[in-house]
Amino acid sequence: MSKVAAGGVYVSLAMAERFAQSLNEPIEALPHQRLSDREFEVLRRICAGETVTEIGEALCVSSKTISTYKARILEKMQMPHEAALVRYAVRRTPYAVRRTPQIIRR
């Protein structure tokens, strides 16, 4: 009681136990953290405005392969279309749309 009267905070034993248990619960990954390194590179290039063909040429794979990566990225990140991917990346970091810097993986 004296702690609360002095401006402190009271935490019941039950609340303290729930808080301690919550520290052990897994933290859900952000959508872009679910991507493989290659998928992440494709996402970065899409956000930089490169076409499927340009990305394929830069990564030495076919444009069909890049289209497959793009479909997987949309599925893993649960985004309905490419514009949603770009919007997500722009909101995550101001560097997403530039060609040189990359989206920061946190």
Structure description:
- The protein is mainly α and 106 residues long.
- The chain has a domain at 31-92: Arc Repressor Mutant, subunit A (Orthogonal Bundle), CATH 1.10.10.10.
- 55% of the residues lie in helices and 0% in strands.
- Helix 3 (37-47) packs across helix 5 (63-76), helix 3 packs across helix 6 and helix 4 crosses helix 5 (63-76).
- Mean pLDDT is 81; it is low at 95-102.
In short:
The chain has 106 residues and is mainly α. The chain has helices at 2-5, 13-22, 37-47, 52-59, 63-76, 82-92. Residues 95-102 have low confidence and may be disordered.
Number of helices: 6
What is the strand content? under 5%
The average pLDDT value, as a whole number, equals: 81
Q: Which word captures the global form?
A: elongated
Rg to the nearest angstrom?
Answer: 21 Å
Number of strands: 0
> Which consecutive residue ranges, at least 5 long each, have pLDDT under 50?
95-102
Structural class: mainly alpha
* Separation, N- and C-terminal Cα atoms: 42 Å
CATH class of the domain at 31-92: Mainly Alpha
The profile of the biggest β sheet is: none
CATH fold call of the domain at 31-92? Arc Repressor Mutant, subunit A
Descriptive tags:
Arc Repressor Mutant, subunit A; 106 residues; elongated
SSE diagram, text form:
Layout: H1 2-5, H2 13-22, H3 37-47, H4 52-59, H5 63-76, H6 82-92
Helix pairs in contact: 3-5, 3-6, 4-5
